[in-house]
UniProtKB/TrEMBL annotation:
Pfam families: Beta-lactamase (PF00144). Gene3D superfamilies: DD-peptidase/beta-lactamase superfamily (3.40.710.10). Residues 1-25 form the signal peptide. Keywords: Membrane, Signal, Transmembrane, Transmembrane helix. Residues 33-344 form the Beta-lactamase-related domain. The chain crosses the membrane at residues 375-396, 405-424, 444-466. This is Penicillin-binding protein.
Length: 486
């Protein structure tokens, strides 16, 4: 009996020795870190999965979705630009099968796509994958995060909006991260396969990997449980109205669960039948020296000099990050249902903390989020509102008598107000619509300042005009009375 007891104890000890990363230390420390991060950054819901040796090692969820349901491992999140490496996966399959060629001009597959190149050099599939096509981020913003196109033709119609584009640089010359590159790759997949993008991805990637909650179109996303996430206003979560770009799946609007993306990570670490070993190596390898972006993957860590494949994703109301390190046979994916562009560093630090825990290290202190930008603009709004109200009262009561000066000031206020939003957009190099989607509180305060300046200018000139007419009428009346008395 004693022998059986000691054999049992030995077996239990061997179990924990064989699976150190699955022990209570990883689970407890990760849970504690995530609870702290979610409380610090006011995140309503999150899901985290960790893979080691190609197998799911840890998965947990916290909080709730915007409809009140608890987040589960199968909960569907918009994964943002994590869609890009998945689209690249589809492209690599077509190259593997000989239906596409990496250095073939995109014109071969999309003959209707016309563009002007500085030296007449053609864009290749490689250029699109690596964001070196010559298409700029600003050009891309004009067709992304839209709700203009719907149905199976949405991707082709959106890609058609790029016709006549003038490239800012010769293909292959410069790196400029632009989602339009992956929109075009989505159109290439449709043209080559003769299938809607969503159908191809489901048949060739999602279903074979068992990614049952992953989708590349809106209807399937709804069936998988997709609901809008949360915008962030001064750090506080506010339910979003739920923008979904029906043409955006190739670059940023796929939906997936942490459970499903863990299965993708297993393939990325171990390989499998969906890609040849050679193509899997190409797909997951870092770019050549001097390159900024691989075939759907980033490799430069913003926190240190470690090299591994990773990608973030963002929509107006969701945020995500995925990474895998073949040298460690490990990876992780983090999904959260809240986003704000000025909080990006905070969200990045969450995954950095997870990586530290996975490596057996203490996670770094989470950085505080600064709201200086929002409060500064809010103060400008309040200041302009108070100053404008006081000046209008003074003008109305005739305490201010330099009418010419105030008429000019009123006109200047209207001009500044009318030009503030275009100027703000120009300074950031980002269309106003994108600013409004990804920094809604900033946009609200800027629009408030704009409205106050324009309304104040109009009212100032209106009051001065009315008072001038009244003064003229009074003088005329007095002049008339004097004539009659004479």
């Amino acid at each position: 009996m004693y022998k059986q007891f000691f054999l049992f104890i030995g077996a239990v000890m061997l179990l924990f020795l064989h699976f150190p990363s699955s022990g209570f230390a990883l689970s407890d420390e990760t849970d504690e870190f995530m609870y702290h991060a979610m409380e610090t950054y006011h995140i309503p819901g999150a899901s985290l999965a960790i893979v080691r040796d190609g197998e799911l090692d840890y998965i947990n969820t916290w909080g709730e979705m915007s409809d009140g349901r608890a987040v589960t491992p199968a909960s569907s999140f918009i994964i943002g630009s994590i869609s890009k490496p998945i689209t690249s996966f589809g492209i690599m399959q077509l190259i593997d099968s000989g239906d596409l060629f990496l250095d073939e001009p995109v014109d071969t597959y999309l003959p209707s796509f016309e563009y002007a190149s500085p030296n007449d050099q053609l864009i290749t599939i490689r250029h699109l994958l690596e964001h070196t096509s010559g298409i700029t981020a600003h050009q891309s913003f004009s067709i992304t995060d839209q709700e203009t196109f719907t149905g199976d033709s949405a991707i082709r119609e959106a890609a058609g909006q790029l016709n006549g584009l003038e490239l800012a640089a010769a293909p292959g010359e410069t790196y400029d991260y632009a989602s339009a590159n992956y929109l075009l790759l989505g159109a290439v997949i449709e043209e080559v396969t003769g299938q809607p993008f969503a159908d191809y991805m489901a048949e060739q990637i999602f279903t074979p990997l068992g990614m049952t909650q992953t989708s590349a179109n809106y209807e399937e996303a709804l069936n998988a449980g997709y609901v809008p996430g949360y915008e962030s206003w001064l750090g506080q979560p506010v339910k979003s109205s739920g923008l979904y770009d029906h043409s955006g799946a190739p670059y940023g609007y796929m939906t997936a669960s942490a459970e499903d993306l863990a299965k993708l990570l297993g393939f990325l670490v171990n390989g499998g039948d969906l890609l040849s070993d050679e193509m899997h190596e190409i797909y997951t390898s870092a770019p050549e020296e001097g390159g900024r972006y691989g075939f759907g993957w980033r490799f430069t860590n913003p926190f240190d000099d470690q090299h591994y494949a990773w990608h973030t994703g963002a929509s107006p109301d969701y945020r995500s990050e995925i990474f895998f390190d073949p040298s460690q046979n490990s990876g992780a994916v983090l999904l959260i249902n809240k986003n704000h562009q000025l909080e990006a560093e905070a969200y990045l630090s969450m995954m950095e903390g997870i990586r530290h825990i996975m490596n057996g290290d203490e996670p770094p202190t989470l950085p505080a989020v600064s709201y200086v930008t929002q409060w500064t603009i809010a103060a400008a709004l309040l200041g302009s509102l108070v100053a404008g109200t006081v000046s209008l009262i003074l003008i109305y009561r005739k305490i201010i008598i330099n009418r010419t000066l105030w008429a000019v000031t009123g006109g200047l206020g209207m001009a500044i107000g009318a030009g503030l939003i275009p100027l703000f957009s120009l300074m950031l190099g980002t269309p106003w619509r994108t600013i409004r989607l990804f920094t809604p509180d900033v946009a609200f305060f800027v629009q408030g300042v704009t409205a106050v300046l324009v309304v104040w200018g109009v009212l100032t000139i209106l009051i001065l005009t009315v008072k001038r007419k009244k003064t003229a009428a009074t003088k005329e009346m007095l002049s008339g009375d004097g004539t009659r008395l004479a």
